Amino acid sequence: MANNHQKWINLAILEASRSLGITKKNPPVGCVIVKNNILISSGRTSPEGRPHAEENALNKVEDKSLLENAKMYLTLEPCAHKSKLGKSCAELITETGISEVFICCMDPDPRTNGNGIDYLKKNGIKVYEQFFEREAYHLYKGFFSRIKKNKPFVTLKIACSLDGKIALKNKKSKWITNELSRRSTHLLRAQHDAILTSSSTIISDNPLLNCRLEGMERRSPDIVILDRYLKINKNYKIFQNNFKNKIYIYSVDDLHHGSDKTKNLSTIIVNKNLNNKDYFNFIFSDLASKGINNLLIEVGAKLSTILLSLNLIDSLIIYRSGKIIGNDGLPFINDLKNSSIEKLKNYKISFLRALDDDVLEIRNHSNEA
Q: Which of 18, 108, 172, 341 is most buried when burial is the number of CB atoms within 10 A of its CB?
């Protein structure tokens, strides 16, 4: 029977996707072990990032003799650096008798980058590199961005009418999109490490910004709040019902710095003299240093416009309903002052799906498509 490589790689990708948003600074990895075209074991990166997928998959195999001459499929290169907790994944693999390893993406972490693959080869394991790389790449946009650019992969979420409005003239917006779209939004939150909003959005909407899908509440993302002058207090919903979520408040005002401090809440002071570009670069760099790979943004038109004008949005996720509000509604983006069609920013469709009468569009910046 011929090897069905794509089948096993797809299973490894599915395993990895189940860990999106819960592995902290570590990337979500999927691992599948196959022998004679029969599945022996599978694993994914654990919550908090350890144990890694390879270790989890190997530990599930009770009869270790089954690993002799087996094949392993990985969405990311196995780590080559030892941790305080034990051996590297590359070492663990070489001790098993596995003869072939199929790897989608290389790990850009300098401690591993190519070293994991080299270690496997030096120990007599046949390695297939960049194997179905395109199919797995989406799993690591955030991890790659943090390692290479010192910036999370930034996604702007928009819920709007058919004509691109986020609210009526009187600012009423519930509900522009349908229930299926709103449930999809909660899953989206669960797949991100953190969600960024502004004090204006909190004061206006008083959102929870957590995941409220049954059984997934503890996968709610950390919260990032832009509150330049510390306008909000702990009476807002966003400070309630958070499990182990961390809350980061970025402010230029240190008047109340350190007050009402809790274990999970911290205030970061930003230089008030920074221009918009340096202000957001500071915040994104700081979030990267905290291990945030994937950042979801839910804000109003003012901040959306600033971020888009500064070219800081990597991906747009748009939930578009069939409702038409009209020109007197509030748009999801304000004036960008463009004067040339040729110079307009372009976000290419990477995913499109109907959610009952709504449409979900995922568009990546042309540099990320």
A: 108
